[in-house]
Every structure is written in C-alpha cells, then in structure tokens.
Design brief:
Blueprint: E1 2-6, E2 9-11, E3 17-24, E4 33-38, E5 44-50, E6 56-58, E7 66-71, E8 76-81, E9 90-96, E10 106-110
Parallel strand pairs: 2-10
Antiparallel strand pairs: 1-3, 3-8, 4-5, 4-9, 5-6, 7-8, 9-10
Length: about 110
C-alpha cells in the first residue's frame, strides 16, 4: 500500500493550492480517506474526510474554503484549498480513515 501526496508549496495569504494523493494497493471502496495536517508545534488535525459512499466531513477551520474529492478511476484523492491563511501552514498528510495507512506528507506554507 502506498499513499503519495503532492501539490504543497509556498503561497501567499488568500491564495490557493490543490493537494493530490495518489493511492496504490487499496481502493476507495475499501477505505474512507482523509486529509490530516500537523502545524508546527501542534497536534494532528483531521481537516477533511470522504467515505466510499461520498459522505464528507470538514473541520470548522476548513468549511467554505477547502473541497475534498476523489477520482475512483485514477485512485487519487484531492484537497482544493482556497482563501489560505497563515494558520493553514502545516504538513498535510493523506491517510485512510482510522490511520491504517499514511502518506509521507506535503508541506504547505502560507506566508
């Protein structure tokens, strides 16, 4: 099983980024998926999740600004982030819901 994130980077406040998570070894029929972030000096925060039925969760901090989606044909998951704030600075991980499998993370810096 492999989860590989991409799309992070440095962006100015108010900017946008699209994170991608390429998944292999499992399918979205098997696992709900999520995006988790860890800001400097802070704990893990579930930003958003999506079940195989399409049920979506957003943290309050993400509502109205972030959109989670997945492409079953490509086995990829995405997090479209807009209106980024300095508080969004963190390492973003994709993971199976429940944490069985994690990616290596991608850094998002808003400054």
């Amino acid at each position: 099983v492999q989860l590989v994130e991409s799309g992070g980077g440095l962006v100015q406040p108010g900017g946008s980024l699209r994170l991608s998570c390429a998944v292999s070894g499992i399918t979205f029929d098997d696992y709900a998926m999520g995006w988790i972030r860890q800001a400097p000096g802070k704990g893990l925060e579930l930003v958003s999740s999506i079940s195989h039925e399409g049920t979506i969760y957003y943290a309050e901090s993400a509502k109205g600004r972030f959109t989670i989606s997945q492409d079953n044909a490509k086995n990829e998951m995405y997090l479209q982030m807009s209106g980024l704030k300095p508080d969004d600075t963190a390492v973003y991980y994709c993971a199976t819901y429940g944490g069985d499998y994690w990616g290596q993370g991608t850094q998002v810096t808003v400054s």
